[in-house]
Amino acid sequence: MGKSDRVRRLRKIIFGATPTAWQKRAGFAFVLPTILYFGGVYFYPLFQSIRLSFFEGGMGRPERFVGLKPYEMVFTDLFFWQTVRNTLYFVILSVPMTVILALGVALLLNRIINHRFRDILSATYFMPLVISLVAAALIWGWIYQPIYGLANYIISFFGIRPQKWLSSIHQVMPSLATINIWLRIGFDTVIFLAALQGIPENLQEAAKIDGAKDSQVFRYVTLPLLNNQIIMVLMIELIFAFKVFDQVFVTTEGGPANASRVIMMYLYDSAFKWFKFGEASVVAVFIFISLLAVSIIQWVFLRKTTY
Prior knowledge:
Elements: H1 3-15, H2 19-52, E1 55-58, E2 61-65, H3 69-75, H4 78-110, H5 115-130, H6 133-143, H7 150-155, H8 172-197, H9 201-209, H10 214-225, H11 227-242, H12 246-251, H13 263-272, H14 277-302
Antiparallel strand pairs: 1-2
Helix pairs in contact: 1-2, 2-14, 3-14, 4-8, 4-11, 4-13, 5-8, 8-11, 9-10, 11-14, 13-14
């Protein structure tokens, strides 16, 4: 038996008789590490959260099955619903503005003919994303400082009196939303810029030859072809904004008067301050189901087939 015959026989034993069978098994072997990673890092904690939402105890204490009692405790807590309202307010302030500004920046960058200069500007917009969220929060905490902060120093040139920013009940959430927009706009800009560069120029040129104005080309040609990217960015930004924690915890710790206490801070306090792991797991399940439902709705109703 020759060497090639031995290799063929060994492959037949390991992968199967037909090429299709061993190709499928080889493909599965390649994706197996990713499956194990997602199973260990994402799905196992999710299943654990669902299981713990029906128990009390943990952290050295014996677990005790209590059924739906943690759900009742959380959903009847008015403070929990206040954090939900604060989170939704933050999402409304942050997500639409982030997507709109990122799309506008991407359109401007796409008009730059010099590719090197465009790449430098794109990298500049992307830089805030690679900064630690804690570091970014500390920087913006200094910018918003009421007495010596940069924000009040700049607006003083326009005759505007100093603002309280993070110390004001009414200004704290818009101020935090500004931080989030600054952090996320670069990521969305890169996605939109890549999508714009993938649109065939002959489609836009044909529309202009037919008499379409720039605004009409954008509305009827460019925007429909960006539909999938817009939905993806909306979903990503919604998830990121709904789970905001770092910048809020570092800058305000939920203050003033709980005006900036978001749902992730409620989860953090339930688990690591009050050691109520059952209630914390209920909040985690609530966040997962809410984001999954909104993402599905966005995908079903906003997705359009473009030719």
